[in-house]
Design goal:
86 residues; alpha+beta; Translation Initiation Factor IF3; 5 strands; 27% helix
C-alpha cells in the first residue's frame, strides 16, 4: 500500500491510498484490500487496480458486507475500484 499525502502551505491534503492487485487471482485482491483498509482511518479512500475477472463481483460483495462505500468502478482495461472506509 502506498500513502499519497502531500503538504500544501502547512495544511495536509490527503489523496487516495493506492493498492496494485494486478496479476493476482481470487481471493488475493480482496485479502490484500482487507488488510490495507484495516490500516486506514474512517473516511479515507483507497483506489484498487485488479485484473482478476472475479474482482468486480468480489469487491461489490465485500463492500456491502463490510459496510463500506464503492464510490466508483471502472473496467478500462484494468478494473479500478474506489472505496471509502466508513
Amino acid at each position: 500500500m502506498q500513502n499519497n499525502s502531500k503538504e500544501n502551505t502547512g495544511t495536509e491534503v490527503k489523496e487516495h491510498e493506492y493498492l496494485d492487485c494486478k496479476g493476482l487471482r481470487c481471493p488475493l485482491p480482496i485479502v490484500k484490500l482487507s488488510k490495507a483498509v484495516k490500516e486506514m482511518a474512517a473516511g479515507q479512500t483507497i483506489v484498487v487496480e485488479a485484473s482478476d475477472p472475479a474482482f468486480k463481483s468480489d469487491v461489490r460483495a465485500w463492500v456491502k458486507t463490510m459496510g463500506y462505500e464503492l464510490l466508483e468502478f471502472k473496467e478500462d482495461p484494468v478494473q479500478t475500484a474506489v472505496i471509502r472506509k466508513s
